[in-house]
């Protein structure tokens, strides 16, 4: 047999693992909450800036049209479409509310659990 692939005795490994309820809470819920709270502001900011860029570029195409420079109108609209595509590709319109909802539900579970120990 190959020494790198020695069989593992799973029963002895599983018997040695013991996690308290508070340890489980700390590992699963609190860690997940900190990850969600780290992602949400960044993604919301990216979403806001992409929307702002789309609005500004679309408005600039109207300004270009008012100066009779019709040949330049497709340029800002193409860039605006690229920003809109990036926002849709990253699914920011659905991810940000979903992350906020998940964080809210995890907070409810955490508050419920900590309320049980009082």
What features would you describe in this structure?
By secondary structure, the protein is mainly alpha-helical. It has four helices and no strands. The protein is rod-shaped and about 75 Å long. The termini are far apart. 5% of the residues are buried.
What low-confidence regions span 5 or more consecutive residues with pLDDT below 50?
none
| Radius of gyration, whole Å | 25 Å
Q: Which geometry do the CA atoms define? A: rod-shaped
Strand content: under 5%
The largest sheet, given as strand count, sense and whether it forms a barrel, is: none
Order of helices and strands: HHHH
Mean pLDDT: 84
Number of helical runs? 4
Terminal residue distance: 55 Å
Helix/sheet category: mainly alpha
According to DSSP, the number of beta strands is 0
Percentage of residues assigned to helices: over 70%
Brief synopsis:
This protein is 80% helix and 0% strand. It has helices at 10-16, 21-66, 74-89, 92-116.
Properties at a glance:
single chain; 118 residues; mainly alpha
Task: Compile the SSE list and pairings.
Elements: H1 10-16, H2 21-66, H3 74-89, H4 92-116
